[in-house]
């Protein structure tokens, strides 16, 4: 993936098991909780490229959220804020080699940012 690519989509759900069964049956998604990500079932579309996760619905997370890969979360946040965005969640680690954050664009849309690699 490269800077600007949509790399992941999270879907907020009330019941992880029920949602996993629904999306698996409806779209043929392979859904599993990878080691280290218990409680966060991740889905992979039949094309083997598209994917994301099923995450517990919470205040401020009520609609699906796309994540855009960026070269630098810090630089992207600075640029977004200069253009009128706000930060819903600052940079947080996912693994030793990857991070995420969430910005809110001037129209109120929550956009996830992803930096790093999922490869060892």
Account of the 3D structure:
With 120 residues, the protein is of the alpha+beta class. The chain has a domain at 70-120: 2,3-Dihydroxybiphenyl 1,2-Dioxygenase, domain 1, CATH 3.10.180. The chain contains 2 helices and 8 strands. The protein has helices spanning 16-27, 73-82; strands spanning 6-13, 30-32, 42-44, 51-56, 65-69, 86-95, 98-104, 110-116. The protein has an 8-stranded mixed beta sheet with strand order 2-3-4-1-5-8-7-6, with helices on one face. The longest helix is centred in the first third of the chain and has 12 residues, at 16-27. 20% of the residues are buried. The mean pLDDT is 92.
The helix/strand class is alpha+beta
| Mean pLDDT figure | 92
Quaternary structure: single chain
Shape: globular
CATH topology of the domain at 70-120: 2,3-Dihydroxybiphenyl 1,2-Dioxygenase, domain 1
Strand order of the largest sheet: 2-3-4-1-5-8-7-6
Number of strands: 8
Low-confidence stretches: none
Please name the CATH architecture of the domain at 70-120: Roll
Strand content of the residues, in percent? Answer: 35-45%
Radius of gyration computed on alpha carbons: 15 Å
Indicate the percent of residues in helices: 10-25%
Largest sheet: 8 strands, mixed
Q: Look at the structure and give the CATH class of the domain at 70-120.
A: Alpha Beta
Pfam family, one: Ble-like_N
Domain VOC: 5-116
Protein name: Glyoxalase
InterPro entries: Anthracycline_SecMetBiosynth, Glyas_Bleomycin-R_OHBP_Dase, Glyoxy/Ble-like_N, VOC_core
Write the layout of secondary structure elements.
Blueprint: E1 6-13, H1 16-27, E2 30-32, E3 42-44, E4 51-56, E5 65-69, H2 73-82, E6 86-95, E7 98-104, E8 110-116
Parallel strand pairs: 1-4, 5-8
Antiparallel strand pairs: 1-5, 2-3, 3-4, 6-7, 7-8
């Amino acid at each position: 993936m490269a800077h600007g690519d949509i790399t992941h989509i999270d879907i907020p759900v009330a019941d992880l098991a029920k949602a996993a069964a629904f999306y698996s049956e409806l779209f043929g998604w392979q859904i599993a909780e990878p080691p280290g990500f218990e409680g966060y079932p991740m889905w992979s579309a039949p094309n083997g490229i598209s994917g994301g996760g099923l995450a517990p619905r919470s205040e401020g997370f009520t609609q699906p959220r796309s994540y855009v890969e960026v070269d630098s979360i810090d630089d992207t946040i600075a640029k977004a804020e200069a253009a009128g965005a706000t930060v819903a969640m600052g940079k947080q680690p996912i693994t030793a080699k990857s991070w995420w954050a969430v910005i809110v664009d001037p129209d109120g849309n929550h956009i996830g940012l992803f930096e790093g690699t999922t490869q060892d």
